[in-house]
Design brief:
- Helix content is about 40%, strand content about 10%.
- By secondary structure, it is α/β, with parallel strands linked by helices.
- An eleven-stranded mixed beta sheet has the order 1-3-2-4-6-5-10-11-9-7-8, sandwiched between helices.
- The two termini are about 15 Å apart.
């Protein structure tokens, strides 16, 4: 029974709990049993909240038994990336500088999960401050891919992706600044959705790149992503970048999910896929062929400024990181060096001891592009190119409802393969970064297996606030294929 229970989707579990066919306590106990058996190898979690989770599960079961109303995620064990503030346990961002920091408040998404009666089981590992594409930059722990422990799970939401794929939770929250939900979802064979910038509150998300960061769900199937979006999406007055109801009215993402999109037109950008592995190109081509067999029309669209996306992103993101991470000064909170001689040493030594190499690299890059004499040449120019990239997407979506492309140029690469060459690591996000620069939604869905049976992801990009349509388009594919296999050994 535990294995069958762990293989249920969120919606299936909610329905069974509501019908009295199983209990939240049984599901939560099964999850912690799996964690105790497998997390030692996978390394998905930085903190676990077993006592609190079991108490919450028991509370849900008692309310269900009494016939009381419960939330849409009632009793579902959920994991949360450890860059979202939570009053239970530490909020570390995978960094030694925050290793012992306890947030005094909950992020809005945490409040929404609690209001939906989800059972939050723990915080997952990530690249330090979400800066990375493999979760090898975590300052606290290493996470491996559940499909192959010699491979990375992707990043920066690698812990969340590995937890969902490894059946250590039913769904998880991740954050995506340049592909950090979609790329690990692709590498681990799960569904990952980066919503439109402003569609989900960022209040309580520890900032990396404030104009790029977005929280989103990581799940085993498309309906579960729709269910999670029903819970976490919506305006938040505490977040100044949250879009209000007039621009993004509240909708039910599950409504009509199984209805095919009539007259679907898919855009493809042929020159963008040239750098992908042949097995990735073949899987994406096969997915496009399937859509055509379902009646979709395929048109070629142009994104002429996409070639500048990597350079643009690493100017804007590092500039924002330099500003955001200046607050970790050894005084207000976080790590403080021992026995400093003066304030200068408090600042310099605390940061030198607390930050990892990749975070230091990005802070220095960002400080450089913002410095006097270089601001116009780098940062201001990058903002102008960002506008051109956004305009390219606007023109492309006049011809199609979504754009289809790979999520990543390869399947999950080997651990340590790219750590010595940061530029090669940055190129792992070549297909995902543009969506963050443009602020549009992007979704990764499993579309095949490469060598070694490693998962391959298909990326769907849509206009701003088209998440419901993207989910329906993804569901069309999911309904007609079955790539939702579980990793070996589970």
């Amino acid at each position: 029974m535990p294995k069958e229970l762990l293989n249920l989707g969120c919606k299936q579990l909610v329905d069974q709990i509501s019908a009295g066919q199983t209990s939240s306590l049984s599901a939560t106990e099964a999850v912690f049993t799996a964690i105790k058996a497998r997390n030692g190898e996978i390394g998905a979690f930085l903190a676990l909240f077993e006592a609190e989770a079991l108490a919450q599960a028991q509370s849900v079961d008692e309310r269900v038994a009494a016939g009381n109303a419960v939330g849409p995620l009632a009793g579902v064990p959920i994991a949360v990336k450890d860059n979202m503030c939570m009053t239970v346990g530490p909020t570390t961002c995978g960094s030694k500088i925050l290793e012992h920091f306890h947030a005094p408040y909950d992020a809005t998404v945490i409040e929404k999960l609690r209001a939906a009666d989800a059972v939050i089981i723990g915080k997952t590992n990530l690249d330090e401050f979400a800066m990375g594409s493999s979760t090898e930059n975590s300052g606290l722990k290493e996470t491996v891919n559940p499909w192959d422990s010699t491979r990375v799970p992707g990043g920066s939401s690698g812990g969340s992706a590995a937890a969902v794929a490894g059946r250590l939770c039913y769904a998880a929250l991740g954050s995506d600044t340049g592909g950090s939900i979609r790329q690990p979802a692709s590498f681990c064979g799960v569904v990952g959705l980066k919503p439109t910038y402003g569609a989900v509150s960022r209040f309580g998300l520890v900032a990396y790149g404030s104009s790029l960061d977005q929280i989103g769900p990581m799940t085993r199937c498309v309906p579960d992503s729709a269910l999670m979006m029903n819970v976490i999406a919506g305006h938040d007055p505490k977040d100044s970048t949250s879009v209000d109801e007039t621009l993004a009215p509240t909708i039910d993402f599950l409504a009509g999910l199984d209805d095919p999109v009539e007259g679907l037109t898919i855009g493809i950008v042929p020159d963008l896929t040239a750098g992908a592995q042949p097995e990735v190109r073949d899987a994406v081509t096969a997915a496009i062929d399937l859509y055509q067999s379902l009646g979709a029309k395929v048109v070629e669209v142009a994104l002429p400024h996409a070639e500048y996306a990597i350079a643009t992103y690493y100017v804007i993101a590092t500039a924002e990181a330099s500003s955001n991470l200046a607050r970790y000064d050894g005084v207000h909170y976080g790590h403080r060096t021992a026995d400093p001689k003066d304030y200068t040493e408090v600042y310099s030594k605390s940061r030198a001891e607390g930050f990892g190499q990749e975070v230091k690299r990005r802070i220095m890059l960002g400080t450089y592009v913002l410095s006097s004499g270089y601001y116009d040449a780098y940062y201001l120019k990058a903002l102008k190119v960002r506008n051109l990239i956004r305009a390219d997407f606007d023109r492309a979506f006049e011809q199609c409802q979504c754009i289809v492309m790979p999520v990543a140029p390869s399947t999950a690469f080997k651990r340590r393969e790219k750590t010595a060459d940061p530029l090669q690591m940055y190129l792992a996000d070549v297909y995902t970064i543009s969506a963050n620069l443009a602020g549009i939604p992007g979704l990764s869905i499993p579309c095949g297996r490469g060598s070694g049976q490693l998962p391959i992801g298909l990326q769907l990009l849509g206009p701003s606030f088209s998440e419901a349509t993207l989910l329906r388009i993804a569901r069309m594919y999911e309904h007609n294929t079955d790539w939702r296999m579980e990793p070996p050994g589970l």
